[in-house]
Amino acid sequence: MPYELHYWPSIQGRGEFARLALEAAGADYVDVARGCEEDGQGIPAMTHFMESGGVRHPPFAPPFLVDGKTIVGQSAAILLYLGPRLGLVGKSETARLWTHQIQLTIADVVAEAHDSHHPVGTGLYYEDQKKEALRRAKAFRTARIKKFLAWFETVLERNPRGGAHLVGGRLSYADLSLFQLVEGLLYAFPKAARRALNNAPRVMDLHDGVAKHRRVAAYLASERRIPFNEDGIFRRYPELDA
Amino acid sequence: MPYELHYWPSIQGRGEFARLALEAAGADYVDVARGCEEDGQGIPAMTHFMESGGVRHPPFAPPFLVDGKTIVGQSAAILLYLGPRLGLVGKSETARLWTHQIQLTIADVVAEAHDSHHPVGTGLYYEDQKKEALRRAKAFRTARIKKFLAWFETVLERNPRGGAHLVGGRLSYADLSLFQLVEGLLYAFPKAARRALNNAPRVMDLHDGVAKHRRVAAYLASERRIPFNEDGIFRRYPELDA
Fold first, then answer.
1. With a CB-CB cutoff of 8 Å, which residues 123-152 of chain A face chain B?
2. pLDDT over 90 at A194, yes or no
3. Which of A88, A99, A105, A122 is the most exposed place for a label (fewest CB within 10 A)?
4. Do residues A97 and A70 share a domain?
């Protein structure tokens, strides 16, 4: 049975981290909410898991993965589950924990990137919190992006198997997620991200390497890859970049 | 060898989630940064792991756990590691994933609670972002606390082993973390949290049950439990509550 990925159909968002793993591994999966309601898919098929009283493990929010009887929410937990099944994480407990720790740190940056345009709350439009966003984005740009990228650079630098991957000598889901983070930062903050990446050459190389991965490249060129847009996590509001 | 917990010595913060697990299990551990520098402890012993070039898996930030050669950062990853070792998680993969997913959702609330007083950035004082904090805290109070607590209530309600625990029929690290979240919300937002908890009676009962757990109760009454204060994640600024 194919994996079912459930996520909002018109944005990359947090669902993209699971999508990239499924695509890079060539896994059989259905992007449920993007399907037709007539086929039992679409948004109702997704919200069913969040709203129906019969679901024992209801996810708090999309994305979530359904694999037979298993339902897993939270992007990092989805990758914890998929990693070993898709061959996207090392076999040792040490490798798995380290990969997960890196993923959780990527999730932290993603949350901060989101809050750079929504510092007051997700319930309000950007236009209603623009003044606050200008201050928050400045702090994110001038301090946080640099600090996080420096940490990923250090992780690559200290990998005894070489700096091509974050953990060990092979592609892991953390590499895919770091690629996506860099893509997102370059989209939302082209000036600030480019500047910070100048000081993180290994991160940039990893990004470029992932983009050339055969299956990832095919995915990125396909219609399955939703373009970045101003409803997602990474939004290009020129006034927030500098 | 005792576990080494590394965290800022004067706040509960994110370190408290690991501390509660260690305490509830009666584990042998050292709270390193609270020790004396003369004994090789204190803050320098902590920052060593973040700054020394010889550390292969440097944590991005405290808290982190050192167990022999293993270093684990990110509170949720620390609990993923400690859970099976301390008997604070079920044995099946399903139970472990579900417990972790709940923990990650608790971590999301904790991040939002932090941002309620620091919506612009961690690099600035509260006083320098008070205006933004008033708006953010309002959104957190009126929408988010309620939404998150309702989800935890549903999780308890749907536990086939009864509503005394989030997962299965025994205490897990997620129960301890939910206790801590409720403690924090009641400290920081006494009015709003009390109101929301009126609609989440199972969450409140779980909180009260954990507080009575023999080892947890002894810990809470000890000097090892740092009181809440206005340097931590949960801060009582009366102007942010209503």
1. 123-124, 129, 132, 135-136, 139-140, 143-144, 148, 151
2. yes
3. A122
4. no
Verify that B108 and B59 share a domain, yes or no: no
Ordered alpha helix ranges (H), A42-172: 42-51, 75-86, 93-117, 130-139, 145-157
A207/A107 same-domain check: yes
Domain count, chain A: 2
B35-67: pLDDT as tens digits: 999 999 999 999 999 999 999 999 999 999 999
Question: Strand order of the sheet with strand B64-67?
Answer: B29-31, B3-6, B64-67, B70-73
Question: Can you give the pTM of this predicted structure?
Answer: 0.98
Boundaries of domain holding B154: 93-213
- What are B93-111's pLDDT values in tens digits? 999 999 999 999 999 999 9
CB proximity A14 to B under 8 Å: no
CB pairs under 8 A between A and B: 116
* CATH number for A73: 3.40.30.10
- Cβ within 8 Å, pair B58-A155: yes
In the predicted structure, residue A65 carries a pLDDT above the cut 90: yes
Summarize pLDDT for B66-90 with one digit per residue, the tens.
Answer: 999 999 999 999 999 999 999 999 9
Q: Is the peptide bond before A2 cis (omega within 30 degrees of 0)?
A: no
**For residue B203, what is the domain's CATH number?**
1.20.1050.10
ipTM of the complex: 0.97
Determine whether the interchain pair A97/B158 forms a contact, defined as Cβ–Cβ distance below 8 Å.
Answer: no
CA atoms of A88 and B192, how far apart (whole Å): 43
A64 DSSP assignment: E
pLDDT of residue A122: 83
Largest Cα–Cα separation, chain A: 52
Q: How far is B25 from chain A (nearest CA, A)?
A: 21
